[in-house]
Amino acid sequence: xxxxxxxxxxxxxxxxxxxxxxxxxxxxxxxxxxxxxxxxxxxxxxxxxxxxxxxxxxxxxxxxxxxxxxxxxxxxxxxxxxxxxxxxxxxxxxxxxxxxxxxxxxxxxxxxxxxxxxxxxxxxxxxxxxxxxxxxxxxxxxxxxxxxxxxxxxxxxxxxxxxxxxxxxxxxxxxxxxxxxxxxxxxxxxxxxxxxxxxxxxxxxxxxxxxxxxxxxxxxxxxxxxxxxxxxxxxxxxxxxxxxxxxxxxxxxxxxxxxxxxxxxxxxxxxxxxxxxxxxxxxxxxxxxxxxxxxxxxxxxxxxxxxxxxxxxxxxxxxxxxxxxxxxxxxxxxxxxxxxxxxxxxxxxxxxxxxxxxxxxxxxxxxxxxxxxxxxxxxxxxxxxxxxxxxxxxxxxxxxxxxxxxxxxxxxxxxxxxxxxxxxxxxxxxxxxxxxxxxxxxxxxxxxxxxxxxxxxxxxxxxxxxxxxxxxxxx
Length: 475
Known about the structure:
Elements: H1 11-27, H2 34-43, E1 52-57, H3 64-71, H4 74-77, E2 81-86, H5 90-99, E3 104-108, H6 110-117, E4 125-130, E5 136-141, H7 142-148, E6 154-155, E7 158-159, H8 169-177, E8 183-186, H9 192-203, E9 225-228, H10 234-239, E10 245-249, H11 252-259, E11 262-267, H12 268-271, E12 278-283, H13 284-289, H14 291-313, H15 316-323, H16 333-340, E13 343-347, E14 350-353, H17 370-382, H18 392-402, H19 405-417, H20 450-454, E15 466-468, E16 471-473
Parallel strand pairs: 1-2, 1-3, 8-9
Antiparallel strand pairs: 3-12, 4-12, 5-10, 5-11, 6-7, 13-14, 15-16
Signal peptide: 1-25
Main location: membrane
Subcellular location: Endomembrane system
């Protein structure tokens, strides 16, 4: 772990922040940032071109790097006056970035990838920084939990983890016999949550369904029906009986525990250990037009990520207080703390150590690996969102168009040079992780061999296969 660098303004940083703030005040409510830009430009050559910015986020604990960068003054240190604005759902957030109402956002990793390849919408977005590792869970209703718990192996008087989705097979079969669909929720068609839930279900022998061109339901041949619900609405939707479970980020799994309406059955680090989660996303033309601003934004966020993981998470209690504010996540402190301070509660009386449930800086969490982007692309192909086969090179090129480690390294190396972060916190890599294990089904992943990876799955599209409303065709 790195040491907490503390909160200190340099004289220059304080002056830049002051100028940006004065410039913003001069703009009134018009949103015109011309005065602020002039102030930044006049202060020093190479200063940020656009110091007045608005970023979007969804009310989840993994937006923490943005809140901390704002509240601990890291944005101001970099001469940025940033407004953070919660968004109603992931579609509204995506549209805000594409339309330019938002300069950047806490985004699902799949959103800039999908937009760039034209799935759902078409726009040139980039992800120059990964916000975190892990942070999600799958929760089931009390009714479902009561049916599966008696059949679970126990360890120390508690259910042994990880729990395979195979335990749901008799429950799903019972629903089918009654002529009822077994419904589960996830937050967006290209969300990590969708792919994690699908991965877990398929690893347990349950088909989560395939997408057809133009279809955002993804229910062809499905044993389990998946639908979209915004994160903060997950507990209420579960309580209403509309869904039998869901995959979402925190604090909305812990909210179900607190309300005693559901039980997290597995965390995402048990599905794929140290999986990449959210990214900081923005338009490519923004980064091209405002390179100094982009570098400053990334430096501020990296400093916030470091602060969050410093001294074995010593700052997490303060982070929880900040996130509990209504302008950020707005959940009770105890609910946020239940997963963000090194513990995770599955049900009353079953709280376990979970030191790696939220990772923001350690393990190179911020570096946007090409192989991470390629994993998302493989899952899009596996479930039919990418309707046709493509050679490996296609995956490599799309990943490099979206994930921008060059921009990350520009910012991170400047922080290393300044002595702000240690040199060994920046990976020396060609942009790809090595072969990765740690998946619940035991399958290894090599980002340099996407088609070979796809061929390993028992459930999922194979080479030459396509999906129509009548089912999967092809060899």
